[in-house]
Amino acid sequence: MLTKTIIEPFRIKSVEPIRWTTRKEREQHLRAAHYNLFLLPADDVLIDLLTDSGTGAMSTQQWAAIMLGDESYAGSRSFDHFRDSVQDIFGYQHVIPTHQGRAAERILFSVMCKKGDVVPNNTHFDTTRANIEFVGAEAADRPIPEARHPATRLPFKGNMDVAGLENLIARVGRERIPLVMLTITNNSGGGQPVSMENARAVSAVCRKHGIPLYFDACRFAENAYFIKLREEGYAAKTPKQIAQEMFALGDGCTMSAKKDGMANIGGFLCTNNSVLAGQEKDLLILTEGYPTYGGLAGRDLEAIAVGVQESLEEDYLRYRIASTAYLGNHIAEQGVPIVQPPGGHAIYLDARAFLPHIPLDQLPGVALAAELYLEGGIRSVEIGTLMFGAAATMDLVRLAIPRRVYTQSHIDYVIEVILAVWKRREEIHGMHLTYEAPFLRHFTAHMEPVAAEQVVR
Ligand code: F0G
Predict the structure, then answer these.
(1) Are strands 446-449 and 431-435 parallel, antiparallel or unpaired?
(2) What is the pTM of this model?
(3) Which of 245, 322, 336, 394 has CA atoms 20 to 30 A from the CA of 78?
């Protein structure tokens, strides 16, 4: 039977209280945090949608596996479980554990890139970009042009611009492109999936030029499920078969197990290239740890071994995607502008369209995120002018949904809060910066609301 009500495909065995605050308290907390939600103590947040990274709930099977953790320094049995489970899905020859995704990125780019190189991606996540720039190379985004328009609905809005990739290779030359990356799903582009057809086309371009293709695989399970739902020829395949087919198009991947690894910490780097794997392991030993633990405890490896498999279960994915879409569709029906269509792990509010009276230098995304906290204790994150400065092409507020943590009634509450803010949107003022760090300023910036008499209309 197909019902309208989305139910969580689990029952709850352990609970963690969340704390109510009054509006007056939230006003004080926000002032003390200089209107920067990163600076709020998490205890003062009711519903935390800052990120879906490392914030998920583990299953009974994962907790059971944790008790089996083998903490041996070398040759741990837990590493074997981890490697076998990862290889079963990803299929790559070498599996290198790391403490999280960005550690895998740093090692990959240190080994593969040098000054003057260019690394194309559909859209680089900020740590990916930073790690490429750290070795003196250039991170080039080549999303399809429609990805830059929040309201445009496309089934695979995370796709790479294949012609754009070809042009880039022709312009800079194959020798300067040590690898191409494809991020599934495209987080910075709105949590949008990449189609198998697009991955195949990108892979063909890479093969033609002899360039290795690596996946940024953080949300690979959600991406596989979107393919099952939306791409012709995949309805009868399991998410696991789809993921396996996609990874077979590449030469390796970086992964943050804090997302579709369903773990609170961890990551890995995979490759089919044995020479590179050797160099990568040497670097791993330098800062992360011996190659059979890579900075993780044996119990973390066990949790990931179970988690990557659970993320592909259809009951879970059906609920996950339906619940995110439910949030997006309910607010969009009332006119709230969001990045369309709803993605896998998050809903992105379009702050420029939500608050058209606030000029960009008065940080509409920061103003909107502050209001969601004031109204209902919800923490979100600005992805816009504060994060990227004048280079920002959109001002978005991301509501990322932790995995298996919040129930349908929590989501209903979030909808209610957003709609209350939407109703009084014209009263919301912009923000100005009072302190900024020289780089990555969004984490530590201080802001203040623009006073009523300074508002230009
Ligand atoms: N790639 C993508 C697409 C990501 O979304 C992230 C992290 C990383 C790489 C880095 O992984 O955090 O384990 O080092 N994204 C988190 C987020 C932080 O909130 O979107 P990490």
Answers:
(1) antiparallel
(2) 0.95
(3) 245
Res. 425 pLDDT band, cuts 50 70 90: very high
Residue identifier of the C-alpha nearest atom 11 of ligand 1: 101
Q: CA-to-CA distance for 123 and 393, rounded, in angstroms?
A: 13
What is the distance between the alpha carbons of residues 449 and 455, in angstroms, rounded to a whole number?
10
Mean pLDDT over residues 110-123, rounded?
97
E-state strands within 327-417: 346-350, 378-379, 381-383, 396-400
Instruction: Quote the strand ranges of 136-258, DSSP E.
Output: 138-141, 180-183, 213-216, 252-256
- Ligand 1 midpoint to CA 22 (Å): 32
Mutation choice for ligand 1 from 218, 220, 253, CB with most ligand atoms inside 8 A: 218
Ligand 1 binding pocket mutation candidate from 125, 134, 403, 443 (most atoms within 8 A of CB): 125
| Nearest CA residue ID for atom 4, ligand 1 | 125
Q: Where are the domains of the chain?
A: 23-52+313-454, 60-310
Residue pair 243/255 in contact (Cβ under 8 Å)? The answer is no
Ligand 1 near 102 CB (within 6 A): yes
Secondary element (H or E) of residue 339: none
Alpha helices (H) along 217-313 = 220-230, 239-247, 274-287, 298-310
What pLDDT shows up at residue 453? 57
Query: pLDDT of 437-454, one tens digit each?
Result: 987 899 999 999 997 656
**256 alpha carbon to ligand 1 midpoint, in Å?**
6
CATH class of 23-52+313-454: alpha beta
> Hey, do 23-52+313-454 and 60-310 end up sharing a CATH topology, with the first three levels equal?
no
Q: 24 CA to middle of ligand 1, Å?
A: 34
Ligand 1 centroid to residue 79 C-alpha, Å: 23
Nearest-atom number in ligand 1 for the CA of 400 is 19
Question: Residue 61: which pLDDT band, with cuts at 50, 70 and 90?
Answer: very high
Ligand 1 pocket, residue 311 CB under 6 Å: no
CA dihedral 44, 356, 350, 370 (to 10 degrees): -10
Are the beta carbons of 112 and 276 closer than 8 angstroms? Answer: yes
Question: Which CATH number does 60-310 carry?
Answer: 3.40.640.10
Whether cis (ω within 30° of 0) applies to the bond prior to 359 is no
- Supply the pLDDT for residue 451: 79
Q: Which atom of ligand 1 is nearest to the CA of 345?
A: 20
Residue 390 has pLDDT above 90, yes or no: no
- The tally of CA atoms less than 13 A away on the side-chain side of residue 408 is 14
